Amino acid sequence: xxxxxxxxxxKDEESAAAFDRLVETxxxxxxxGEPGTLVYAAHRVDGQPLQRIFYELYRxxxxxxxxxxxxxxxxxxxxxxxxxxxxxxxxxxxxxGKGTTG
Length: 102
Fold this sequence. Notes:
The protein is α+β, with helices and mostly antiparallel strands. The protein has a single domain (2-92), classed as Alpha-Beta Plaits, CATH 3.30.70. Helices cover 39% and strands 37% of the residues. It is built from 3 helices and 4 strands. The chain has helices at residues 13-33, 61-69, 71-80; strands spanning 2-10, 37-45, 48-58, 84-92. The protein has a 4-stranded antiparallel beta sheet with strand order 2-3-1-4. A hairpin with a 2-residue loop joins strand 2 and strand 3 (48-58). This is Quinol monooxygenase. Its EC number is 1.-.-.-. GO terms for molecular function: monooxygenase activity. Pfam families: ABM. Residues 2-92 form the ABM domain.
């Protein structure tokens, strides 16, 4: 399995609301059309109204690459930059877990 955690910090409350709308429409497409995407969860951070954290888990690296090539993903990546102050990515290698085959 292949995964990542991404911390997004929005510029302001208006940007955060627009980012949330963008995420909502993108996740609908991921849910419906990406069988290799096992988990794609967007979280708000308690006490940090401008931060969002994504947890993404893919069947393997090729499933992640397929995700990145999707039109909805490219649209998300292009639209998000004007809404964000920063993006931090941590790449993950599954060691062990519940609900996983690792």
